[in-house]
Design brief:
The chain is α/β, with parallel strands linked by helices and about 280 residues long. It contains seven helices and twelve strands. Strands 1-2-3-4-5-6-7 form a seven-stranded mixed beta sheet. Strand 1 and strand 2 form a beta hairpin.
């Protein structure tokens, strides 16, 4: 299940949504980023790490979407981190008596019975402004930004140059905006996030998006940034984007077009309110 993408960095990809779990080797074990997503896949990941003699010493969730805050008992009791905003979002959710049913309602029906929730969202928030993951391993830089979801962060593994981008820079998903409210501009938030990733792009040798195919080379990273920015400009201007993730979607991924249509409609309503 694990594929090496750079020195001391491995990736496991889940089947349904092509979620990428990033595993970084440290001195005494590994950092697991965005563990997912079914119980069987998580147990297999834990077994593979055990067979390699790699205990899990830390975890990290790039943002508070359900498929990025999962865990499994077989992965152990290592501290699991997120940004302060991400961890607060999870605390708020779990404080509701009906949080399990609320989460379950949002799961893809084909895997709803095989997503473990006992350890869902149990994160320790890193203090605001934390620059690096606190663990005994390669320096892992935290790049927090407002795109897509509250408390979203990308991680840059320094030395190996691997960027774990969370739910951005995907080759299968168009940019997915945050909530449309009266207090925010979701397009500008996403553009801010792209600028944060662009700031570190020169140090990136391998990009691992939260969903989809990893790519190698700074030029490929910048091409993904440019594609996402072009989509956002078209969306903001009310134009139909020329985007391969919509125009020539892979078989089985045509539904990404419905994400775009929903966002275009939501943005049009948001623009009406803010004229």
């Amino acid at each position: 299940m694990l594929t090496q993408v750079a020195d001391d960095v491995l990736v496991h990809q889940s089947e349904l949504l092509r979620n990428n779990t990033v595993v970084v080797r440290g001195q005494d074990g590994v950092l697991v980023v965005d563990a997912g997503i079914t119980g069987a896949e998580l147990a297999c990941l834990a077994n593979d790490l055990s067979e390699l003699g790699l205990p899990v010493v830390a975890g990290f969730s790039t943002h508070p979407d359900w498929d990025h805050v999962l865990w499994h008992t077989d992965l152990g009791e290592a501290p699991r981190y997120g940004t302060a905003r991400c961890a607060a979002d999870m605390r708020d959710l779990r404080s509701s008596a009906d949080w399990r049913s609320r989460v379950t309602e949002g799961l893809p029906p084909e895997i709803a019975d095989d997503v473990p929730l006992d350890l869902f969202g149990l994160l320790t928030g890193l203090p605001a402004g934390t620059a690096r993951i606190p663990w005994d391993g390669p320096d892992v830089r935290v790049a927090e930004h407002p795109a897509h979801s509250p408390g979203h962060a990308a991680l840059l593994v320094e030395g190996s140059g691997v960027l774990a981008a969370g739910d951005m820079l995907s080759d299968v998903f168009v940019p997915m905006l945050g909530d449309f409210t009266d207090e925010n501009d979701p397009v500008e938030e996403y553009l801010t996030g792209l600028r944060a990733l662009e700031d570190v792009a020169g140090d990136v040798g391998v990009l691992v998006p939260g969903h989809g195919s990893a790519v190698a080379g700074a030029d490929r990273v910048r091409a993904r940034i440019d594609l996402d920015r072009a989509y956002l400009y078209a969306l903001r201007d009310g134009r139909t984007p020329a985007d391969p993730r919509i125009d020539t979607a892979e078989p089985g991924w045509e539904w990404v077009g419905a994400i775009h249509e929903g966002q275009a409609a939501g943005l049009a309503r948001w623009n009406e309110r803010h004229r």
